[in-house]
Amino acid sequence: MIAAISPPPRTTAPGPGRIRVPNPNRHSIRFSNLGFPLWNPKLNWLPHERMQMAWVRSMSGGCFKSTEPPPKQGIKVEEDSGGQDVFDADAMDSKVSPEHLVIMVNGLIGSAADWRFAAEQFVKKLPDKVIVHRSECNYSKLTFDGVDMMGERLAQEVLGVVKHRPEVRKISFVAHSLGGLVARYAIGRLYEHSSELGQSSVYGNSLTEEYTNSSMQYLEHPCEDRIAGLQPMNFITFATPHLGSRGHKQLPLLCGLPFLEKRASQSAHLVVGRSGKHLFLTDSDEGKPPLLLRMADDGDDLKFISALCAFKRRVAYANANCDHMVGWRTSSIRRQNELPKSNLLVIDEKYPHVVYVERETTNTMQNKASSIAGAQTSDVEEAMIQGLTQVTWERVDVSFQKSKQRYVAHNTIQVKSYWLNSDGTDVVFHMIDNFLL
User: What mean pLDDT is predicted for residues 338-344?
Assistant: First the structure.
């Protein structure tokens, strides 16, 4: 699918799985592992990786190349920091431009195009309030690289957008599926407590300029925690496997059969690389606990829960049924006995596919903590639930059971393609109508 580039004769051959990437500034050939790049935090690798991704897109078609139609009238799309900014052209030309940045993150084997419909609806409903950035630093096979590496890329992309948009003051994240885990990692990297103002950048010298720009905005509101120097508002996920995919029926496609679930846990990395290890909690980098378990609490260098707590709202949209990729428990961060009973599900005329809304309070969190003894979860899953529910969540349960598009519910919940997933429109509108500005 990727066109081959024939370099001048060499004495040594490239390693397996590597392609030759032409450097426009030199006549030499640089080698890079496209599928599974090696991570070295001391290297300023992002500019080269952006060049690599741009080259892949220009040389390929089909699954890599975006063929989405032009935006609606009045809506403008600009390339920015490897992704795409979507905004109202008239609002940007006015004296008071939008100050709320919304970062939208795609899931496994996805792209920026997955959020096209939702981004346009955001801008149409809130033209003078929001700038939407559809992230593209993790698309297609790059989503196999693991939650941590994708999170690092997303964090750098966000800092690039903040630098390019100095007028923004607030930030929100909207993520689908695996993208929700990536966003959770990224905000842990981007989180800054007020006491840390003035310290060196978490990325070292490579992002000093971007961090300085964020710190200047931070000075305006020194009493609050910040994400990338901005005021965190909404953290919203759609069908995200917050508890991973290893538990019973957490990957509904396997029909809850123990031998299939065990086999999937052992072989997921062969299909989707390091991301598979993270989803099934089989990773043990340097003898550490699985990454998703570590992300359920604050670490020494990355404050995952503190970063979540900094947001005014945290919302988990979950498919109550018909989602073959992500189970109801893992996407709604609940134990089995906490899932709403069928008699509690309601039909809202305005949002017909939103069947249950749970707004968690501190009191409900305490009540749940007292009933842990009756929960039916594994020790690791229970640890993640307890960690993630240190902060309150709004849970929005969605059902496409009576829809013709129920078999693609995983994509319908975000309206990945309007022609295939239009029944999820009311879910997108529910998110926008309840969005905290």
Answer: 87
